[in-house]
Specification:
Blueprint lengths: L5 E5 L3 H13 L3 E5 L2 H6 L1 H5 L2 E5 L9 H6 L5 E6 L10 E6 L5 H9 L1
């Protein structure tokens, strides 16, 4: 996949966000990251991205969470706690944390 495949990462936790950035950049993805959904939605970089990796923590305490997710208008990979049962919704692929192996990379490559 070429560097033109850009991934937006929206993860409030700094350590997890940096870890995901590193893992994606090693695989030659262009990465733009944010600690919150509003910043990601407002960024022109997000409009040019191919997909969004979104941690569920960024949606907590937001009654309009799914509306926010749909606002990205591109495939979303939602990272959720392994103990939560969230079904895949239209346009949202659910990946359970902790991410094992190359689950995230495989999911992104399926999009591209």
């Amino acid at each position: 996949m070429s560097n033109s495949f850009q991934v937006v990462v929206v993860v409030p936790d700094y350590g997890l966000r940096r870890s995901l950035e590193f893992a994606l950049e090693v695989e030659s993805f262009a990465v733009v990251s944010f600690d919150g959904v509003n910043a990601a939605l407002a960024s022109p970089s997000t409009a040019a991205a191919s997909c969004v990796v979104l941690d569920e923590e960024a949606l907590f305490n937001d009654p309009l969470a799914m509306t926010v997710v749909r606002g990205f208008h591109k495939p979303v990979l939602l990272l959720v706690d392994h103990s939560r049962g969230i079904p895949d919704a239209l346009g949202v692929k659910v990946l359970r944390k902790p991410l094992l192996g190359n689950a995230l990379i495989r999911a992104i490559r399926l999009i591209g």
